[in-house]
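the two lines:
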Amino acid sequence: MSATWIAVLVTAVCCYGLKLAGLTVPPRWLAHPRAQRFAVLVPVALLAALIAVQAVGRGESLAVDPARLAGLGAAAAALLLRAPFLVVILAAAGTAAALRALGVA
Amino acid sequence: MAETSADPVRRAARDGIALGLAVGTSGLAFGAAAVASGLSPAQACVLSLVAYTGASQFALAAAVAGGGNLIAGTASAVLLGSRNGLYGLRLAGLLGFRGPFRLLAALGITDESTAVALAQPAGGRTGRAAVRAGFLATFGSLYLTWNAGTLAGALGAGKLGSPNTFGLDVVGPAAFLALLWPRLREGRTERTVALAGALIALAATPFCPPGLPIVLAAAAALGAAMLPPAGMLPPPGEGALSPAGEVALSAPGEAAPSAPGEASPSAPGGAALSAAEWAAPGGQPDPAGAAGAAGDRPCR
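prediction for all of em together
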């Protein structure tokens, strides 16, 4: 079994297990306000980190890809206009693809 | 509202189905991005079938794409999924499922199903039926469309040429941005944590195998969790103590203490859910708990 398969299966089982644990364990296990705040804020920190690294990261170095950044900018603009999720994605991918097709970026 | 107020169960089911169908189409984006990252269509489908939580799935795909450390990628995916455990805590009493059915219901816990379930007026037999209807309707419609979308996106993307030509490399970060967006609107703490998390990850990138910087960014959340909740920020004069850029530097490695607390699981904010939804009927808004947190002022 490849390492990727192992990562996929571990992720899948752990993500399901966390859901089941929440439904099953006594609520007081996570009752402390700080523990709750941590669990609520973790996605914020991780999502922001993922955006940053994917926007300007390339392996272990930082690199600027103008088309990718423009695509992210289009996504932000769509979000400001309260566009639905799929429109945001299409705006981002479409912008990057168009700029590359035109040879602009 | 008038025509449906007599039947909250039907209304909950209708809302759930509509939301599930709308959001589930983004499974297309995941399937395409996963295959562009180097996952096989089968791997993408297993993630959607079993993990069934978008942000974690995108995160693992990102780690694979970076050719990075799969252990760190898995860790960040699982950390992102931890919020579903909180949702489960919140939903357990409202849904009241018992026995084997709970195993199935657990799979259905997502941002969306939790939001719909918590939006129902709980209380009484009708209230529980509405909560269950909203949850199950969202689960069913979203699960089907998300998985069908994943399969279609994965197979479709494989037929395309270079993923960058179609801008598929932007799909992941754009999806993360869309998932993060509602949280950024919630308050200064969220924005500070996001900024700190991004800076930590960027600063660590040149020195770590890909994937690890994402996990390190969790320190930003840890730091902020040690501070008083945003809604209970220090009285005037103590303003300088409010969470600022250095949040991330406070005591990483110090686990959140697990002393028994009196607070109910009405977490402040609530990932991807508005505060209003968390404070929905059945869950006390719990100012006492928050005040308690502010009272035993944590480290700085």
